[in-house]
Amino acid sequence: MSDMANPAAGTVKEKKRVSQARRNLETFLANKLAVAGGLVVILFVAMVIMAPLLTPYDPALPDLKSISQPPSPEHIFGTDKIGRDVFARVLYGGRTSIMIGVVSSFMGSLIGIVLGCIGGYFGGKIDAFIVRMSEIFMTFPQMILILILTTFVGKSVFNIIFIFSFTGWMTPSRLIRGKFLTLREETYVSVCRAFGISKFSIMFKHILPNAISPIIVAFSINVAGYILSEAGLSYLGLGVAASVPTWGNILNAAKSVDVILNEWWLWVFPGVVLSLFVLSVNFLGDGLRDVYDPKG
């Protein structure tokens, strides 16, 4: 009998959903670091989106009259060696760095979800092939694999996202596969098969919603990892093109000993912003783990 035919059953289900949502919220709020991390993430994202309202400077426009100026009321983070405003570069660079982290994590999770669903539901040779393929990828340290691929495809935002997605699907795939191996034996799945519901619908409409919670946690943590990876690649000169402002490229311009000793604002402010954002994302991920995976 459907919920429309039985209003009482629908009301009970709605109350259970509200109760579960309330418990999840209370669990998350109990983790003070997660709450603080979430607030910092929201603040940073809002600032990089509203960058044109927060600074009048073009992050790529040199000003030869303002070369290597320390922090001042006019340039609160100072200027670099060709007079570009560091605060503007941090804001606009945050747009690119955060976008790379979010899109890469999303695409990697999407690939992993599809492969994990297929392998976990069908099993057999299909599952064995996907597992072996993930093991081959995981044989190589991810950063080494990223460096190798970067030398072949070149430096650009699109290429970095492609590389991160291509090398980051294994963990989401294994998480989803593990859930599917358990959930495919549940009674509701057998009922769906008995009613002739297509395998595609069973996999993605009935099983996947019950298996997605660990992916939410992995997604948030991977965002922080990819932002750090992009910063590391750009610091080495192997990431995004130097003309594109990212947190890594800003730090790359400040790696000489002379700059470290005499122009501290070129690396302190970008480094603090990068570290604070990544820590906040990790704290947020820990809070989501408490909510969705209390045993983890």
Automatic annotation (TrEMBL):
<dbReference type="Pfam" id="PF12911">
    <property type="entry name" value="OppC_N"/>
</dbReference>
<dbReference type="InterPro" id="IPR050366">
    <property type="entry name" value="BP-dependent_transpt_permease"/>
</dbReference>
<protein>
    <submittedName>
        <fullName>ABC transporter permease</fullName>
    </submittedName>
</protein>
<feature type="transmembrane region" description="Helical">
    <location>
        <begin position="264"/>
        <end position="285"/>
    </location>
</feature>
<feature type="transmembrane region" description="Helical">
    <location>
        <begin position="98"/>
        <end position="122"/>
    </location>
</feature>
<dbReference type="GO" id="GO:0005886">
    <property type="term" value="C:plasma membrane"/>
</dbReference>
<keyword id="KW-0813">Transport</keyword>
<dbReference type="InterPro" id="IPR000515">
    <property type="entry name" value="MetI-like"/>
</dbReference>
<feature type="transmembrane region" description="Helical">
    <location>
        <begin position="216"/>
        <end position="244"/>
    </location>
</feature>
<feature type="transmembrane region" description="Helical">
    <location>
        <begin position="33"/>
        <end position="54"/>
    </location>
</feature>
<keyword id="KW-1133">Transmembrane helix</keyword>
<feature type="transmembrane region" description="Helical">
    <location>
        <begin position="143"/>
        <end position="167"/>
    </location>
</feature>
<dbReference type="Pfam" id="PF00528">
    <property type="entry name" value="BPD_transp_1"/>
</dbReference>
<dbReference type="GO" id="GO:0055085">
    <property type="term" value="P:transmembrane transport"/>
</dbReference>
<keyword id="KW-0472">Membrane</keyword>
<dbReference type="InterPro" id="IPR025966">
    <property type="entry name" value="OppC_N"/>
</dbReference>
<keyword id="KW-1003">Cell membrane</keyword>
<feature type="domain" description="ABC transmembrane type-1">
    <location>
        <begin position="94"/>
        <end position="285"/>
    </location>
</feature>
<keyword id="KW-0812">Transmembrane</keyword>
<comment type="similarity">
    <text>Belongs to the binding-protein-dependent transport system permease family.</text>
</comment>
<dbReference type="InterPro" id="IPR035906">
    <property type="entry name" value="MetI-like_sf"/>
</dbReference>
